[in-house]
Amino acid sequence: MQMNTPPRSTIRLTRRGRFALVLAGAVVAGTAVAVPLLMLDHQEQAKPTTLVIPEGWRAGQIYEAVDKVLELPSGTAKKSLERAGLRLPNDAEGNPEGYLFPATYPLGAKATPESLLKAMVDTANAKFHKAPIAAGAQRNAMNVYQAVTIASLVQAEAATKADMGKVARVVFNRLERGMPLQMDSTINYALNRSTLRTTEADTRIDSPYNSYQRMGLPPTPIDSPGEDALRAAISPTPGDWLYFVTVKPGDTRFTADYAEHERNVAEFNRNQQTAQTASVSAG
C-alpha cells in the first residue's frame, strides 16, 4: 500500500531516552532498626526486609537486584528461571521481560531467587488478567501480552505521567498506518543501554528490537511497566499524533505534521549541543 510517509532514513520519532534505567544496581528499602552501640567491633548492619522494583526496570536489572539483596553470586537469579516455574503467557516463550511487576516485595527468611521472581510474575498476572487491563486489551483488538508490550514502550518513552496517553496514541496511530514505530527506547534495549543519543548507525543494527527497520511491535516488552503506563496502553488519549520529541525537560511536543516535527527535533539538537558545550566549559 502506498503511504505518504517520509523515507525511514529521515524519520526520527523520538530523540530521547527516558532515564528510568539510570539507577545502577538494586534499590533496596530496609527497616530502620535502633541497635545499641555496645560493641562497635561486632556491630552488624540490619539486613533489608524488602526489595523494591521500580517502574521501567529491565529484567536484567531485576536479576542483579535479586542477587544483591540475597547476597548471591552475580547471575544466580537469571540461572534460576527454569526452576522458578513462572506462569508466563505462551507469547513470552519463557522470557519474563515485562512480567516482573514493579512493586515492593517482602524478604522472608526463606526468600530465594525463585520465590521472588515467582512473586513478581504472580503479581503481574493478577494485575494483567483482570479488568480493566484484560478488557481494555480486548477492546483495542489485542491480547494482554501486546498491551503489556505497548505499556513498556510508554513507560520508556513518556517523560511524564501526563504524556503517557499521548505516547500510547502515537504507537496506535503508527501501527494503524503501517508505519515503523522508530522508537529510540527499542534501540536502547537492543544495545542494553539508556541514552539520549541515537545515531544513524544505531538505527541500522540487526535486531528484532530495531523498530526503525522492523514493522510492528517488538517481540517482547522492553521493561516492567507500571499501572499508569498500562492504563495508557489500553486507553490512549484521542489524537492524530504521529511524532513526538522532548525538546527540553517538561516540554514534550506531539504533532501529526512531519515538517513541524523536524523543527522540534532541530530545537532538541540545539538544546543538546548547548548543554554539551556548557558541560565542557564547566569541566
Give an account of the 3D structure.
The chain has 283 residues and is mostly helical. It has ten helices and four strands, in the order βαααβααααααββα. It has helices at 59-69, 76-79, 81-84, 113-128, 133-139, 144-157, 164-176, 184-190, 227-234, 258-282; strands at residues 50-52, 104-106, 243-248, 251-255. The strands form two sheets. A two-stranded antiparallel ribbon has the order 1-2. The chain has a two-stranded antiparallel sheet with strand order 3-4. The longest helix has 25 residues, at 258-282. The termini are far apart.
Give the helix/strand layout.
Elements lengths: L49 E3 L6 H11 L6 H4 L1 H4 L19 E3 L6 H16 L4 H7 L4 H14 L6 H13 L7 H7 L36 H8 L8 E6 L2 E5 L2 H25 L1
Helix pairs in contact: 5-9, 6-7, 6-9, 7-9
Please sum up the structure shown.
The chain has 283 residues and is mainly alpha-helical. The chain has helices at 59-69, 76-79, 81-84, 113-128, 133-139, 144-157, 164-176, 184-190, 227-234, 258-282, and strands at residues 50-52, 104-106, 243-248, 251-255. The termini are far apart.
